[in-house]
Design goal:
Helix content: 10-25%
Shape: globular
Largest sheet: 7 strands, mixed
Order of helices and strands: EEEHEHHEHEEEEEHEHEHEE
CATH topology: Metallo-beta-lactamase, Chain A
CATH class: Alpha Beta
Radius of gyration: 17 Å
Number of helices: 7
Oligomer: single chain
Length: 245
């Protein structure tokens, strides 16, 4: 199984990076985690077969994680000529936010019947959900109003565990989400500056022994972190980078 970082940036283009979008593939799995506003451009730049993607799992509804779905869907409808079913997964009120972002981006588009079946699955905190060949467990994290909601993910597939913090300040839920994961992809927005709603590198390090992942990969970094990467002994995401899991 492999993970390709289609986009590894924050909301503001720090380091010239695309918005968050991870492509996970294996013998039986092919899905995205998040699809930020710039993701369709990045997917095409990496020559990804869009029609082979079976599911998209969203952590939350901010544009740098969710804003790419209108472009993905309209491309599927009119250019990629998709016929395969697609499953869209995310927090509570997923369908409401899907219709809202579609209408905001392209008025009338939410009412267009797709040429392919679309299934929406809303996850609940700590309730494992089978989605094709994967089992996804969402954990509520702190990135704004708790009723947002905002998710971290623990995903089991092909005898591997992939975990992702999503965007969040430190919360104990990350220990359970990432514990002993084969790969733990973690936000490291600032190096040591503590801000509400985002995770800094030093806070992550403080709790890393409790999480104990087999591999840590840092992502969603601001310029504050990007200028200090030579000091960091851990792996970090870069646009286009592929990791074997």
């Amino acid at each position: 199984m492999q993970v390709q970082f289609i986009g590894s940036g924050d909301a503001f283009g720090s380091g010239g990076k695309f918005n968050t979008c991870f492509h996970v593939t294996g013998e039986k799995v092919n899905f995205l985690i998040d699809c930020g506003a710039s993701s369709l451009i990045a997917l095409k730049a990496n020559n990804i077969d869009l029609n082979s993607i079976n599911a998209i799992l969203f952590t939350h509804f901010h544009a740098d994680h969710f804003g790419g779905i209108p472009f993905f869907m309209l491309d599927a409808q009119f250019f990629s000529k998709r016929t395969q079913p697609l499953t869209i997964v995310g927090p509570q009120d997923l369908r409401f936010w899907y219709d809202r972002v579609m209408e905001t981006s392209f008025p009338g588009s939410s009412e267009t019947k797709t040429r392919f079946d679309v299934t929406f699955i809303e996850l609940e905190d700590r309730q494992p959900q089978s989605i094709g060949e994967i089992t996804a467990t969402a954990y509520l994290v702190n990135h704004g109003n708790r009723d947002g909601p905002f998710f971290s993910y623990r995903i089991e597939c092909e005898n591997r565990v992939l975990a992702y913090t999503g965007d969040t300040e430190w919360t104990e839920a990350l220990i359970e989400a990432g514990h002993n994961a084969d790969i733990f992809i973690a936000e490291a927005y600032f190096y040591e500056k503590k801000v509400q709603l985002h995770l800094d590198y030093m806070s992550l390090l403080e709790h890393l022994p409790e999480i104990s992942p087999k591999r840590l990969v840092l992502t969603h970094m601001s310029d504050d972190m990007l200028k200090r990467l030579e000091e960091i002994p851990y792996d970090y995401a870069e646009d286009g980078k592929i990791l074997e899991v």
